[in-house]
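Predict structure. Chain length: 441.
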Amino acid sequence: MSILVVGISHNTAPVSLLEKVSLDADGVVKLVLEASGNEHVTEATVISTCNRLEIYTEVDRFHGSVEGLSQLLVERAEESVEALLPHLYVHYDDGAVTHLFRVAAGLDSMAVGEGQILGQAREALRLGQELGTVGPALNTLFQQALRVGKRSRAETDIDRAAPTLVSAALAQAVPEGVDGKRVVVVGAGAMAGLATATVAREGAEVVVVNRTFASAVRLATEYAGAARGLDDLAAELATADVAIACAGARGFLIDAAMLAGRTTPLALIDLALPRDVEPAVAGLPGITLVGLEELATSLHGTEAADEVAAVRTIVSQEVQAFLSVRRQASVTPTVVALRSMATQVVDAEIDRFDHLLPDLDPRTRAEVVKTIRRVADKLLHEPTVRVRELAGEGAITYERALAELFALDGDAVAAVTSSVVTSVVDRVDAADGTDHREGPA
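Prediction complete.
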């Protein structure tokens, strides 16, 4: 079994295409279930954000699974296979591990180091657990990815040195700052919460507008702002200096007609996918519009080099440790099968010995049996220790060599494989003497 990732993100596709594959909560659930229904997929979950959609799976076959998973994304984009495939990426096995660790650490984000992706990865794990589509392999992988993300932020200043999407957008749209300005935040989700916190901290007067008024009240109250329903959006925009749209609604919430005739400047920031602001708004006099496309361009190359280098080192260390432990764990079923076969051989020889010397006194027999078992254990000890060490180095499949040399029963090896997979997190944690397990929520 191997890990396979098929995805699309801001690194490979324009916003116009990402918009077509963006999913609401129900859409994510449906995609997870459809992915897990592939005949070659044994586990599945999905990371869905405003600038990425990635299907994570454990598969028993590469070609059949990658074709099926790619088709699921093609269907959602409502594009031809030829049009979408150049924008998809595939990571397999070791490459998939590296990719998820980079994502969790914030190295693959539009705003390098941003912290929201960690919560989004946690949500993908929770959803897969809830749907029953995540098993030992993906659970172990995501638990470790969350650990890598937390370690990266604990040991470096990557999340403070690199700009968030909100702060980067504000710097581009309102270079003079928002202190004393009236800022309308559209939406009440995680991104809206970040936007509200950012502008409130910088001294802005905040108004939260949301379709569900109770949610607007909760967010606005936390930052001493005002709350309005969506019906009040046009009126609030009329007196706003800045508007930050984060709702991700189907259909534009802010269009050119809503702003026609405006005589005062307005900075509009659209952080939603699908977009909340009609692109034609950018052509209106006095309107400054900054969206994800503009941000992708402006953020390119702005990451803090020292912090990024430190996080890359952490990710590299964690990937190597994880892969080493996983390779060692993969040897365990073969080692167990070998020891089981040795035990059977020893037991058979002891039975033969008992038949040859049935009148041997119990004390002598016990010493002979002990000696036979001790010889077998000593003969097996060094090879089994070395095979784990060599497997950790990943040079060749020493467990297969053992299985072939000793003609081990394949069913015996498979019988203990699933229980071994779940031990990877515990073994990695034991290496540094701490408990890094992440809860499902």
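Summary: Residues 416-441 have pLDDT under 50 and may be disordered.
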